[in-house]
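During the reporting period the student researcher (J.K.) took over the structure-prediction task from the postdoctoral fellow and processed the backlog of single-chain submissions. One of the processed entries is reproduced below for the supervisory committee.
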Amino acid sequence: MKLIIFKLLFIYFSPLLLVDSPATPSEGLFSGRISTLNVVAGLIKVKVDFSNIRYLNKKDQVTFWDQSVKLDKCRGFILGKTNEYLLIKISTFKLCAKLAYVKEGAYLKFFSQDLVNNLKMGRELVAILKKKRLALLNKVKKSKKEVDSYIEKVDALNGRYSALSLKLQREWKRELSQLEEDRINSLRIYKNSLSSLEDVEFKMERYKVEDENLKIDRWSLDNRLFYKK
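J.K. obtained the following structure tokens:
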């Protein structure tokens, strides 16, 4: 009688407790050891150690089973998580405990389709991030090349304007030299002209021709007594 009742209960609760998916290795498969359990609350705390735990979220569904009894699998959902532990809620804890070895220290296998889906979305996100990273790497490389070429550009600019400055300085000195030469020529012409002018004035004074040869002799204050001699 008890066996018949147990079979009826098993058939009734099987949609909630049992999963017919094959226990083949997949992305959703991981393992963990029961650290603590609370029979009244239907909770088990499982210590896990795998990198993809970050893709398990609260309320994600998980199935688990004892490795020695691969046909019987229980189902629960994640109530909380840390980097190393999962807190799993099992709605029918007592019945599940009969189907799998749910004890402290038990080493169980877990599978989560939500983990598979999350990993798929994670890979899609990583693919997008890789493309963005590649674009940013190219941009960084281009920007770094421009930054590195700054010194070369400055050196080229300094060289260009140094050459222009040298050329301008040479032209400036040449113009100054030309002006100095013009000044010397002008000074020479000035001195020669001045000397010629003085010579001409000297000769004009020397060879000056008076209008008349007589001079007024003013031997008296009375201008009526003036006369030319």
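The committee noted the following: Residues 1-25 have pLDDT under 50 and may be disordered.
J.K. will present the remaining backlog at the next meeting.
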